[in-house]
Amino acid sequence: MKKQKAKKVTRFPSVLHMNYGMLFFAAMMIYVVICVVIYFNKKHLVGYEVIEGSLSSNNIYEAVALRTEKIVTCDNPGYVNYFATEGQRVAVGNLVYTVDGSGDLLDYLKSQGSEQATLSSEDLSELRTQIVSFSSSFDPKNFSVVYDFKNSLDGTVQKLASASVLQNINSLNAGGSALQSINYCYAPDTGIVIYSTDGYEELTLKDMTSDLLDSSKYEKNQLISNSLLGAGDVAYKLSTEETWSIVIKENDLDKVQDLADREYVKVRFLKNQDESWGKVSYFTNDAGDTFVEFTFTNSMLTFSKERFLSVELITEEEKGLKIPNSAIAEKNFFLIPKEYVSRGANSNYGVLRAKYDEDGNETSEFVELEIYNETDEYYYVDDDILRSGDALIKADSQERFTVSQKEGLIGVYNINKGYADFRQISILYQNEEYSIVKSNTVYGLSVYDYIVLDASTAEPDAANLDTSSEN
Questions:
Q1: Which of 54, 193, 266, 390 could bond 319 through an S-S bridge, CB–CB 3.0 to 4.6 Å?
Q2: Is the pLDDT assigned to residue 114 strictly greater than 60?
């Protein structure tokens, strides 16, 4: 065998083959991730549309109504039939009810075919008018008025039916029928007729306890027609005075003293949104509970059948532009004397600021300014335009003013132009969530302006407005 010739192997340097498409894709992914992280870490402006509104410094309470109420008892035993409409005023001598001592009035009426009351066309027209009036004004959001309508309709039906029964009784007596057991009972005094008792009739402010203000423990004795009453039993009661009061419980002595200092406080009745001014008095009982009484000289008839009322005390009420407190911020501004501020060629406000050229020669430049507020002597100027230590030149004079003094303003950031621009506000009233500010002030807000909902996210002149908004 021939000796095989040795093979010589030459190693070539390896070449790294890069996939530029994958590299570009990875770079784009990193960029997107960075942008997403920056976006979520960045504070975004959320707009709020300024609207007109009002705020009330109010408190809602459950109150007990106290009235001058006179209990009227039954003189003769028997079955009672009421003829006066509950909640309506009667005069002295008006018929309120009858008492059937024998108990055979209903049987006698049945035997004569008069057990049912017949309503005339006028009576039906009165009922129809009430129903149509209620139907046309009914609001499903205020369903409680249905119960008021029911009570009103019951009263009307009772009045019409009772009048019909009374007419039948009179006609039967005129026909010679012996109904000698019927006793006619008339009002001994002028007042509002109420057919119930609850033990609160003689209560005063000094008698109040926490239990009496607890509606869950309240019990009422309803007086019903055709029920049997004994001599001396309660027949009905009369509210004889127009002056009445409500009592609430309030153990915050600072609030109580504030109410007492006002002497009169506006009270809103939540049942029908009526408002009335009540004279304030208060009393602290032996248990340490303080009760505040508000006395009125009107509206007693409206609430004559109510013992418990939900009320709202309105101690402050201001109307203006309603903005959330989160939008309010404080910003410092330079105070510039008015004599140093002039108008330029385009009628914009500005100042002459001293400056020096390359050779050290003094010149001046006109710097446009935006005014944020003013007093009799000064303009408030943004500290982003001027710098502390700038020398201002008075027009047509050699007098100088050095910029240094600052003062803060309370305001919000207006974003009508797409960036946050500070606007001063004048707060009329403020509660925990909202403030009422003056509208259409020279350097302030107007209705339908858009402001930054959260002032802490605002960066003046920065266009980082979120597209979402609230109102």
A1: 54
A2: no
Which tokens in the block code for residue 23?
Answer: 């590299």
Determine the Cα–Cα distance for residues 210 and 248; give it in Å rounded to an integer: 10
pLDDT of res. 252? 86
Query: Are 247 and 300 contacting, i.e. CB atoms less than 8 angstroms apart?
Result: no
pLDDT tens-digit readout, 158-214:
666 666 666 666 655 555 554 566 788 888 999 999 888 888 988 999 999 999 988
Helix and strand counts by DSSP (H, E) for the chain: 5, 31
Mean pLDDT check: name the lowest of 123-137, 238-252, 447-461. 123-137
Integer Cα distance of 378 and 161 in angstroms: 79
DSSP assignment of 182-222, as one string?
EEEEE-SS-EEEE-EE-S-TT--GGG--TGGG-GGG---EE
- Is 409 within 8 Å of 370 (Cβ atoms)? no
In angstroms, the CA 192 to CA 168 distance is 26
CA separation for the pair 349, 95 (Å, rounded): 83
Residue 99: left (phi > 0), alpha (psi -120 to 50), or beta? beta
Q: How confident is the model at residue 111 (pLDDT cuts 50, 70, 90)?
A: low
Q: Give CA–CA dist 281/213, Å, rounded.
A: 17
Cα–Cα distance, 101 to 78 (Å, whole number): 4
